[in-house]
Amino acid sequence: QVQLVESGGGLVQAGGSLRLSCTASGFSFSRAPMSWYRQAPGKPRELVATITSGGGSTNYADSVKGRFTIARDNGKNTVYLQMNSLKPEDTAVYYCVFSDYWGQGTQVTVSS
Asked: Which of 6, 13, 17, 62 has the fewest CB atoms within 10 Å of its CB?
């Protein structure tokens, strides 16, 4: 079955960086576009970034453009989200998503 396991979240000060990882199994990862979403308390889920199956095209929410980078390693069945210049408003649970499948999420907390 499809499994998406996120890691790399944590507590960081504003201006700091984190790299999230999502290791996938149970489907043909190298053919799958992947996404990262996030959900902050009391807010709807927000699409953060997407990447095509080959990694040649990416898209970002306006709120993270220039600060976040999505990338993938198809040999490792892993998609990454490099987050730089973090802000308190980036605090949320971050989810790795393939089609209708969601990981369990990883908490990112940015202190001011």
From this structure: 62
